[in-house]
Amino acid sequence: MEKRLSEFAIGETGVIKRVSGDGRIRRRLFDMGVTPGAEVYLRKRAPLGDPIEVTIRGYELTLRKTEAELVEMEVTA
Q1: CATH number assigned to the domain comprising residue 41
Q2: Among 8, 9, 43, 57, which is most exposed with the fewest C-beta within 10 angstroms?
Q3: What H or E segment, with its residue span, contains residue 23?
Q4: Could you list the residue range(s) of the whole structural domain that residue 33 is in?
């Protein structure tokens, strides 16, 4: 099942399929390791839903909800 990273529930895991967005934001996500094929685990979500904390490539990364909406995922667990 495919959905955006911003729609994940705490504890869900998935693999990145696509990263959309304009050149600047897309480049920033790529620089942080958010690339197709990477496995992502949603660790925490702030009380109002923004930001979220994920584990990707062995480290914790905090993303804004607007950034997470650009990441299309394939849910694995």
Answers
A1: 2.30.30.90
A2: 9
A3: helix 23-31
A4: 2-75
